[in-house]
């Protein structure tokens, strides 16, 4: 219902905008034609005032006609300039307005998503603790509930970290704390972090020789966690998620492969936009806030690396991260 209202509102705004623009352009054309008509009338009136027996008659006629042509060029130049400025301004305002409306919609979707993302782990942790408190459970059952509660707490912590980091990065207040990092250890730790809650996460054999880069351990760990978490969410519980690390001569390549529905070519660039999520909050089944991939790209870019999306056969997608090694 809300999305329908938004579409109607945008349609009304667009119609009103183009109506006003058409009115302004029509008024400008009318102004130009009026000036041209007035110019012709003034030239004709001045010619009628001349006396044909005047020795300078032809000279004065030529001056009047030259002045008339000069006015024509002046009106054309001024009119064209005004028209160009109006059209350029109109396009700028129209694009800025649509961008702002889209951003407002994304921010509203973000607020809806963040509310859900915050309430869900809190509710699960509360339920698990109440179950332990009220019921007599054996040690194995209690352990499962505690592990699940810890997992949801970690998820809540990651969410808060994403939100805080997004705010700091946008404000330019976060400073990278770069140090020598063993990517083998970083990738292994991220894989182990998720493996307890997602058994179908598979980590390929790491390179025998450690791959070292210079970077911020907190940010790079968060970026990799975001990619793995994203792959798990879109793959579903029954499909495999694969994490790979390879070291080339000058670059380290990290690949996170999922077997979900995949990403269309038109969306591959947009998935890294802030707040962007496929579909609407009313129809979307996957969890998320639209910050994870946005932050990941910012982090990788700040480390001088690059990230992109490829298709995975037969289904799903592959997020590829390239970072410069310390030997480069």
Write a short abstract of this structure.
The chain has 328 residues and is α+β, with helices and mostly antiparallel strands. Helix content is 63%, strand content 12%. The protein folds into 2 domains: 2-108; 179-324, Histidine kinase-like ATPase, C-terminal domain (Heat Shock Protein 90).
Structural features, described:
The strands form two sheets. Strands 2-4-5-7-6 form a five-stranded mixed sheet. A two-stranded antiparallel sheet has the order 1-3. It is elongated, with a radius of gyration of 33 Å. α1 (2-49) runs antiparallel to α2 (57-134) and α4 packs across α5. A hairpin with a 5-residue loop joins β6 and β7 (317-324). The chain has helices at residues 2-49, 57-134, 139-171, 183-195, 217-235, 265-268, 292-302, and strands at 179-182, 201-203, 212-215, 241-247, 251-257, 306-311, 317-324. The two termini are 55 Å apart. It contains seven helices and seven strands.
């Amino acid at each position: 219902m809300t999305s329908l209202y938004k579409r109607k509102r945008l349609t009304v705004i667009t119609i009103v905008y183009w109506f006003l623009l058409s009115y302004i352009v029509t008024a400008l054309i009318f102004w130009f034609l009026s000036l041209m008509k007035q110019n012709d009338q003034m030239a004709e009136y001045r010619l009628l005032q001349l006396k044909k027996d005047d020795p300078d008659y032809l000279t004065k006629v030529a001056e009047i006609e030259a002045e008339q042509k000069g006015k024509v060029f002046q009106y054309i130049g001024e009119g064209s300039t005004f028209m160009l400025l109006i059209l350029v301004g109109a396009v700028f305002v129209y694009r800025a307005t649509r961008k702002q409306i889209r951003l407002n919609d994304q921010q509203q979707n973000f607020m809806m998503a963040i509310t859900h993302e915050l309430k869900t782990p809190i509710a699960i942790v509360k339920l698990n603790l109440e179950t332990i408190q009220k019921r007599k459970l054996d040690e194995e059952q209690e352990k499962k509930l505690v592990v699940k509660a810890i997992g949801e707490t970690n998820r809540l912590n990651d969410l808060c970290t994403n939100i805080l980091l997004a705010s700091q990065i946008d404000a330019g207040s976060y400073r990278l704390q770069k140090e020598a990092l063993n990517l083998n250890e970083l990738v292994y730790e991220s894989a182990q972090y998720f493996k307890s809650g997602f058994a179908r996460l598979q980590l390929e054999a790491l390179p025998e020789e450690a791959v070292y880069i210079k970077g911020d351990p907190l940010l790079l760990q968060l970026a990799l966690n975001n990619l793995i978490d994203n792959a798990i969410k879109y793959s579903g519980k029954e499909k495999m998620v694969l994490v790979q690390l390879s070291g080339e001569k000058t670059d380290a390549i990290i690949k996170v492969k999922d077997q979900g529905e995949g990403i269309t070519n038109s969306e591959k660039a947009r998935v890294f936009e802030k707040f962007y999520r496929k579909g609407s909050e009313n129809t979307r089944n996957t969890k998320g806030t639209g910050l994870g991939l946005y932050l990941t790209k910012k982090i990788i870019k700040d480390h001088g690396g690059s990230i992109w999306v490829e298709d995975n056969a037969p289904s799903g997608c592959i997020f590829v991260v390239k970072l410069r090694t310390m030997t480069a």
